[in-house]
Fold this protein.
Amino acid sequence: MQKMLRALATGGTAVALILTAAGCGSGTVGETTDDKTGGDKAANGKITVDTAQGKVSLDKPATKVVALEWTYTEELVALGVTPAGNADNKGYSTWITAKGAGLPDKVTDVGDRNEPSLEKIRALQPDLIVIDNDRSKANLKQLQAIAPVLSFTYTTKPQLETMKKNFGELAKAVGKEDKAAEVTQQIDTKAADLKARLDKAGKGGLKYALAQGFTANGTASIRMLTDDAIAPQVLNLAGLKNGWKGQSDAWGMTTVGVEGLTKADKDATFLYVAADNDNPFTGDLKDNAVWKGLEFVKKDKALPLDPGTWLFGGPLSALHILDETGKALKV
């Protein structure tokens, strides 16, 4: 089923990838407040959650949650909470195939992440809505009129620590803090295990370059991930060293054409993610002279990861990145 979902038209794939990088509450039950006091419980016994829009108070753990960003859908699933609604079920299932991250069939699709259906969200009568702060600013007040809103910013540096913090705050809102701590610890445990296996195989400290490739306007487009991005921060926990030092955008990416790949460290192993039906590395670039002349290509060190390895996700995606890297490096 996942293979079938990945079979998007080339143009559609490019659009989906481009959108993923774009921007890649209050109410009667939940109330936003500027209170700076810490802790899970406010003085009045409410749950207090720290968000990009200030602190949000809930009378009790939310049970009917709508998520309008895949990362937070993934995090809810990781916590054992089935979302009542999710934005773009097909896109989620295509790009996020980490173990345990599958979306249950009963989750209602509430439309595109950039333009979700307020009518569908309202019909679900949620007691909580979770959004990306940048993507959903335009309709924030409309969403707040439906239910309390938790708004998070993914790209705050360092991204890995931001993801862990936001995951913990979301866990507060649904009463799953212990589960969040358990899942988060798995990242460090799996990274340590990968490091040990790399060391044993004589590959400790191996240098890599991590990329996501797709076709845009008929041309190969490649996102190179710097140490400002979450995925390299996860790999670096395993003692790996990032061999890409390009100028990064807010997401920690440098978008280049094939010529730009010449700036990767010569001794780096090239790890990449690309859709099954839109893989420029095995397609358009296969016979390209620049591509064929790259050291990692000549030495057979251009290694694919599972196309469903989501490089901008939550804790389950972080675990998947470590698993896929171990497989690619054969340790």
Observations:
- The two ends are 28 Å apart (CA to CA).
- Confidence is low (pLDDT under 50) at residues 1-15, 25-40.
- The CA atoms of residues 16 and 239 lie 32 Å apart.
- DSSP finds twelve helices and 14 strands in the chain.
